[in-house]
Amino acid sequence: MTMNRSAEQIVKDTGLPRLDSLLNVAEQRYPGPRRAFGKVHMFLVFMTVGRQPGIGRQRLSESTDLGEGSMRTILKDLRREGYLDSHIQGCRLTETGTRLYGMLAGKLVGPISLKTTSLTVGSCQSAVLVRFPGTPIGIGIEQRDSAVRVGADGATTYIIRGGKFFIPGGSHDCEKDYPGQEWPTLRKALEPSNGDAVVVCGASDETTARLGALAAALSLMTTA
Q: What pTM was estimated for this model as a whole?
């Protein structure tokens, strides 16, 4: 069994909590059945607790669509690594977890649900914004593949340049070339600025679309 340094130890050594250390908690190996969750599920639970301090385990399971068994394991792992405290009053992030959440919340907006649009494939769609991604985007293949790996049908990445939605290798002004009500919706909900990336993910159900959007977002986020 390989153990990572705890969150508190990483902060003590470097002065900063790290996203990659949080995600690696999901990949630690322990005796027992194969885990039915991955990095994106760990990230989703962490961010949900950050947004809703004091949330109970049952409501957390319902809001993330994770089973009770997986939820118990995720919470146990996050407690052990120093990111979360769980009491009868509910789940709350520790000081270290709160610091990391603050960093992540400043970079990530969403995910938000969308009606079926022409922005990507899939009957259920979800969008997320990453502020000033530190990873080169290319033509968005890595984001699409990250979404597909968690069960999504696909994902399309848009970059904000000159105040316009730009597709790498495609349209330089998507609102002009492909007019629709989805663009005002994205602008109002995500408030994109120049340099930001917006990923729209589609799947056959809302939960998978949301997980796909988050998985794509994680591929764009720095791990400082």
A: 0.82
Give the rounded distance of the alpha carbon of 12 from its chain centre.
26
pLDDT in tens, 59-92: 888 888 888 888 888 898 898 888 999 887 889 9
- What residues contact 182, with CB distance under 8 A and at least 6 apart? 114, 115, 117, 118, 119
Tokens found for residue 210: 């949301």
Helices (H), 81-221: 95-105, 141-149, 174-177, 182-190, 206-220
Q: What is the pLDDT of residues 162-183, one digit of tens each?
A: 999 999 888 999 999 999 889 9
Q: Which amino acid is at 39?
A: K
Q: Where are the beta strands (DSSP E) in 61-148?
A: 84-87, 90-93, 108-114, 124-130
C-alpha 206/C-alpha 202 separation (Å) is: 8
Q: Which domains, and CATH codes, for the chain?
A: 7-103 (1.10.10.10), 106-220 (3.30.1360.30)
